[in-house]
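Ops channel
N.P.: pipeline sanity check, posting one input/output pair.
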């Protein structure tokens, strides 16, 4: 069997691309952007309906559009992009041919088919069951079948990724251990296998139920297993975007991780502890004991949170060290003031870290506490929280990576000059506003997934305070800003990839097996004393330390405020 060994080296980045792998990365990335566009158009309907003064859609259209928005964004956009990242982290970073490209294409087409089928079921109008599709709410069989086919496709992609690691090992394309970014991608792929297995365990019986072959699906059982899938898939996103943070710090600054061991250990914590944390979605469910809930969401979950805090500290820390070594060594924050704020990938990653940590992280720990959860359960606080994690955190990090990949992978210049940087700020600031104001409205009790906060014509009326209406107006305005930012991203990427100025680089060359394409160079270990003379207070990254203290104080303060608030919700007299 002839093995295709066509490789090219990107002269600007030195990265090595294998021809079939490159094609797969491109197609997965392009499909991702297509689904982001679809999800973004649907977001217009969602946002402009929840903005009560506009109240765009009729109830049935609203729930239909909301279902499709969640799925196209959180499943199809993010996972297509992640598959591109997996192939990049294996084939490109390890300078290795992709294992079984044919299988990878089969996986790709299954994902395409599944995504189309699932969208078809929602368009039909009888599958507006929301992203979570809680039984006994039922959808058309194509809803579940579409998701299952998509998941099988993604599983195949994970195995192609693992196979590529084996190829790299056998063909000795790297020495020592794999690079940290690849390690992060391995974490994501391992979690993905667990996630997809949980998805199969719940979605296959639900499909049979929707076909009339099974009579009954227990709703608590459904929720428990579904969240093994729903929550874990968020941890794939976190592992993937953290890998992108490390990649970004290396690309933009040449930064080295502060401690490879600590970072790898933190990735390991994700694998060990994230599944337990899915219990935080069941905090208001009957039938589970408080002991079970508190153990799983506090003691165990904090270990996964700890891992994110480690990454959130070491990525800026490594950037600080790299900047100080370049001479920006004055005071606490010169390294940050003189950071390349006009560089789109840097700006995206920086906002991603801040948004994910401050908005997503702190609110996540608050709402994951059993007692506090009841203040915000099923309110708009929940979408506020996860737009900080999956949009500011994951989506924005992927947007930043795109601007790096357009010249390197698609060999085109990023179109429209500085607009990419503006795009990052517009989207980042708009989405931060959406998250904050949805959380604000949720704190005041405004429900999520509800068509009409005025409850017009309902038997049981409820009046929200004027401040809740104001929150929704502000969320709506910020939503429009974020939508403009999202549209600019699609415009810039599509224009650059299909119409942009070509970057002339050498094409693919056949490389014989014996010749090889070279071995991934190990990052040279730091010489003793390499960091001498940088930093203050005996620390190499004192600025990051101060930022971490600011984070910790906000965390403690916010947590305390919510306990105080809880005590007023239910006065004991
Ligand atoms: C400009 C962009 C966006 C805007 C304005 C927006 C707005 C919203 C709003 C207001 C809701 C809550 C509706 C409600 O519960 O009543 C919502 C739900 C949701 N959004 Fe977004 N969103 C945007 C982008 C994204 C992205 C990029 C993702 C994922 C990566 C995402 C994932 C979701 C999910 C999963 C839901 C929940 C659906 C459900 O409850 O079943 N959104 N969005
Ligand atoms: Cu979760």
């Amino acid at each position: 069997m002839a093995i295709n060994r066509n490789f090219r080296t990107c002269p600007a980045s030195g990265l090595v691309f294998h021809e079939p792998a490159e094609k797969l990365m491109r197609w997965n990335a392009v499909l991702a952007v297509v689904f982001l566009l679809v999800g973004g158009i649907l977001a217009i309907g969602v946002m402009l309906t929840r903005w009560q003064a506009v109240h765009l859609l009729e109830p049935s259209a609203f729930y239909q559009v909301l279902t499709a928005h969640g799925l196209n964004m959180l499943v199809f956009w993010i996972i297509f992009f992640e598959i591109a990242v997996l192939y990049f982290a294996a084939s490109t970073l390890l300078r290795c041919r992709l294992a079984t490209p044919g299988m990878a294409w089969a996986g790709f087409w299954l994902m395409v088919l599944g995504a189309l089928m699932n969208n078809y079921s929602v368009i039909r109008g009888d599958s507006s069951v929301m992203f979570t599709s809680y039984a006994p709410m039922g959808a058309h069989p194509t809803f579940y079948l579409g998701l299952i086919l998509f998941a099988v496709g993604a599983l195949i992609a994970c195995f192609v990724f693992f196979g590529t690691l084996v190829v790299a090992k056998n063909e000795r394309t790297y020495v020592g251990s794999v690079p940290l970014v690849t390690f992060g991608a391995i974490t994501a792929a391992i979690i993905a296998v667990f996630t997809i297995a949980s998805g199969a365990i719940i979605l296959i019986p639900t499909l049979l139920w929707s076909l009339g072959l099974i009579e009954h699906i227990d709703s608590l059982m459904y929720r428990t297993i579904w969240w093994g899938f729903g929550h874990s898939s968020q941890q794939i996103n976190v592992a993937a975007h953290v890998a992108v943070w490390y990649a970004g710090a290396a690309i933009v600054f040449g930064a080295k991780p502060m401690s490879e061991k600590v970072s790898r250990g933190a990735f390991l914590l994700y694998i060990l502890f994230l599944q337990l944390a899915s219990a935080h979605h069941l905090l208001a469910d009957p039938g589970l004991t408080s002991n079970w809930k508190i153990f799983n969401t506090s003691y165990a979950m904090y270990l996964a949170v700890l891992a994110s805090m480690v990454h959130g500290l070491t990525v800026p820390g490594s950037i600080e060290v790299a900047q100080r070594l370049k001479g920006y060594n004055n005071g606490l924050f010169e390294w940050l003031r003189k950071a390349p704020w006009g560089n789109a990938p840097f700006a995206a990653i920086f906002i991603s870290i801040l948004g994910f940590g401050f908005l997503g992280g702190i609110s996540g720990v608050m709402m994951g506490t059993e007692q506090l959860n009841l203040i915000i359960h099923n309110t708009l606080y929940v979408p506020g929280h996860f737009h900080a994690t999956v949009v500011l955190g994951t989506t924005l990090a992927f947007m930043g990576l795109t601007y790096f990949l357009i010249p390197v992978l698609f060999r085109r210049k990023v179109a429209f000059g500085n607009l990419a940087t503006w795009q990052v700020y517009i989207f980042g600031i708009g989405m931060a506003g959406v998250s904050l104001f949805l959380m604000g409205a949720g704190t005041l009790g405004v429900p999520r997934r509800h068509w009409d906060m005025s409850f017009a014509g309902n038997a049981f009326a409820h009046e929200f305070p004027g401040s809740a209406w104001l929150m929704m107006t502000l969320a709506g305005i910020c939503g429009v800003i974020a939508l403009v930012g999202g549209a600019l991203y699609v415009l810039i990427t599509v224009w650059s990839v299909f119409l942009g100025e070509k970057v002339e680089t050498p094409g693919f060359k056949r490389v014989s097996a014996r010749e090889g394409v070279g071995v991934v160079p190990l990052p040279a270990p730091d010489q003793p004393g390499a960091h001498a003379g940088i930093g203050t207070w005996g620390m190499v990254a004192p600025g990051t330390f101060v930022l971490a203290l600011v984070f910790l104080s906000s965390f403690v303060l916010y947590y305390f405020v919510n306990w105080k608030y809880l005590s007023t919700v239910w006065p004991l007299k």
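N.P.: looks fine end to end. Residues 290-325 form the longest helix (36 residues).
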